[in-house]
Amino acid sequence: MRLGSPIFLGYLPIGAAFGILATTAGFSVAQAVACSALVLAGAGQFIAVNLLGAGAGLATVVIATTVVNLRYVLFSATLSPYLRDMPLRRQLPLAFTLTDETFGVNVTDLRAGTADARSMLGVGVVSWLGWTLGTAIGAGAASSVGDPTRWGVEFAMPAMFVALLVAQITSRRYVVAAVVAAILTAACSFFLPGAWPVIVGAMGAASVAAVVNR
Amino acid sequence: MSASLVWGVVIGMTVVNICFRLVPIAAMSRLSLPKPLERWLSYVPACVMASIVVMEVLRPGGRWLAPLQNPYLLAAIPTAVVYRTTRSFLGATLAGVAAFLAFRYLLG
Fold first, then answer.
1. CA atoms of B49 and B92, how far apart (whole Å)
2. Which residue among B13, B36, B57 places its CB closest to the CB of A62?
3. For chain B, which residues make up each domain, given as ranges?
4. How large is the ipTM?
């Protein structure tokens, strides 16, 4: 619970922003909340609402969000060696609540040896609650919720990622890998759209690091 | 937009996301992975976080900002320092938001 609390704080306002955007675009409150509760994919959900608002069809929206969410395959594969002794019924809720943030927190704790099935489930459940509750608040009170950006909430998730990056840098080889990833991602962002710079930059840098540190 | 289209999108995204998130964990955790692949995967978290930080901090909202005019970048520094000294994600997040508000105010 404690580990998930910063994610909860970050998700609540962004979930509310999604709720406002989705209901403004034509989702019912139930559809907006169901979308967050079932999909739990920040960027993918925002893109889906934008595309639907622009008149896109079912296949276009699902394919576009599939591409954006490809990074979950990478996260899931990275967690797999740590979850060897876990039965499928316990893996399922962890997989269902796998996001950029829960991945970062859980992989940091797994490496530090402080994570177990209960703590990882807690992180997932608290994060899911923050995202779903935020969406319900935003969708239910779209017109009466003020502008959340005046509280600086747009920096909550970036701040979390900065802390997660520092947590990952446990030796010089990870510093080098992170610097290569940053440069590659920045370069890719000039010609690749959406989440592709993150996917290509991170996979490329991990490959370089794995070869150099053989 | 029609209600059935929205529900179709919600269900389609749900199915795709569960597959993406569960299949690698469920399948690969039952295999013995080759050493090079395990080594590659060990670098993924640091690389992914660095990549996300670049996108969120250097070009917030998809727009590059000059370093000294960028409250995201300036606030990232105290955030990193607070995490490094306290090892608290919540403390670092709250300190980061406070620093962000201060820098945004100072930069106008």
1. 15
2. B13
3. 1-31, 34-106
4. 0.89
Q: Name the burial class of residue A70, with classes exposed (0-12), middle (13-18) and buried (19+) by CB atoms within 10 angstroms of its CB.
A: middle
The answer to whether the beta carbons of residues A138 and A33 sit under 8 Å apart is no
- Residues near B17 by Cβ (< 8 Å), separated by ≥ 6? A39, A40, A41, A44, A69, A72
The reply to whether B84 touches chain A by the CB within 8 Å rule is: yes
Between CA A21 and CA A138 the distance in angstroms is: 8
Whether residue A4 lies within 8 A of chain B, CB to CB, comes out as no
CA distance B46 to chain A (A): 5
Q: Which of A119, A166, A171 should one mutate to test binding to chain B, selecting the residue with the greatest count of B CBs within 10 A?
A: A166
Angle between the A172-188 and A196-212 helix axes, to the nearest 10 degrees? Answer: 140
State the distance between the two ends of chain B, measured CA to CA, in whole angstroms: 40
Residue A104: list chain B partners with CB under 8 A.
45, 48-49
Considering CB atoms only, which of A61, A159, A210 is closest to B40?
Answer: A210
pLDDT tens-place string over residues B14-49 = 999 999 999 999 998 888 878 888 889 889 889 988
Torsion of CA B54, B55, B60, B61, to 10 degrees: 170
Whole-model pTM?
Answer: 0.81
